[in-house]
Amino acid sequence: AQSVSQHNHHVILSEAASLELGCNYSYGGTVNLFWYVQYPGQHLQLLLKYFSGDPLVKGIKGFEAEFIKSKFSFNLRKPSVQWSDTAEYFCAVIPVSGATNKLIFGTGTLLAVQP
Amino acid sequence: ETGVTQTPRHLVMGMTNKKSLKCEQHLGHNAMYWYKQSAKKPLELMFVYNFKEQTENNSVPSRFSPECPNSSHLFLHLHTLQPEDSALYLCASSQDLRLAGDEQYFGPGTRLTVT
């Protein structure tokens, strides 16, 4: 079965530290990849997405992610986090094979940034 | 104001009750989704509708009954639920699930507690 793994369930960083959140998926075909963020008390919102082209994708708020096809990975990075980045981050994948737009989510990573 | 609204935001119901969750999208989208978010589990897709037609039922128990009267509204009718059904139920919408990598927009969710 297709799945998405986020290895870090809970990450605590100090402000200005660099961030990298891991995401791996299990699907051998073409995929569309997403990172969603859920700030405390708010709804899920899209941070960035990859469909094709340059595997280094830049999103909102200084976030970026790199698609490495050979490693089935789509890790999220930010060079310097802020307190306002405290949120839960979800990696998601759409296998581009069927007729449906079925997002498969990871379990999420809770990031706490200490001032 | 978010493009996808959900009511109620919180619901407590007994196992013999019947209640409904409502989702409305103001984005002109044609596809709508129900997801279940339980603690420490990935978001689980429950149902998908495209142009009012159900395209996916992800093996959801019959005590959950979706209804999509038009492209802007989606309901989830609940009856004889179990305590393990307690979770955050998220609604999402997208332009058209046949479009590759069609971005989904999420509502704030309904926090359901079954007693």
Kindly name the structural category of chain B. mainly beta
Q: What fraction strand of chain B?
A: over 45%
Main pleated sheet of chain A: 6 strands, mixed
Radius of gyration of chain B, CA atoms, in whole angstroms: 13 Å
Total beta-strand segments of chain A: 12
Would you tell me the overall average pLDDT of chain B?
A: 92
Number of helices of chain A: 0
Largest sheet of chain B: 7 strands, mixed
The fraction of residues in strands of chain A falls at: over 45%
Helical proportion of chain A, percent range: under 10%
What structural class do the secondary elements of chain A suggest? mainly beta
Radius of gyration of chain A: 14 Å
Helix-strand pattern of chain A: EEEEEEEEEEEE
Gross morphology of chain B? globular
Q: Which chain pair has the greatest contact? A: A-B, 24 and 27 residues
Number of helices of chain B: 0
- Give unreliable regions of chain A as ranges: none
Residues in helices of chain B, as a percent range:
under 10%
Question: What gap, in angstroms, lies between the N and C termini of chain B?
Answer: 32 Å
The low-confidence runs of chain B, each spanning 5 or more residues with pLDDT under 50, are none
Q: What's the multimeric state?
A: heterodimer
What does this structure look like?
The complex is a heterodimer of chains A (115) and B (115). Chain A is mainly beta and 115 residues long. Chain A is built from no helices and 12 strands. Chain A has strands at residues 3-5, 10-14, 19-21, 24-26, 31-38, 45-50, 56-58, 64-68, 73-78, 87-95, 104-105, 109-114. In chain A, strands 2, 5, 6, 10, 11 and 12 form a 6-stranded mixed sheet that branches. Chain A has a 4-stranded antiparallel sheet with strand order 3-9-8-7, with no helix packed on it. A two-stranded antiparallel sheet of chain A has the order 1-4. Chain A starts with a strand and ends with a strand. Chain B is mainly β. Helix content of chain B is 0%, strand content 56%. Chain B is built from no helices and 11 strands. The radius of gyration of chain B is 13 Å and the shape is globular. The model of chain B has no long low-confidence stretch (mean pLDDT 92).
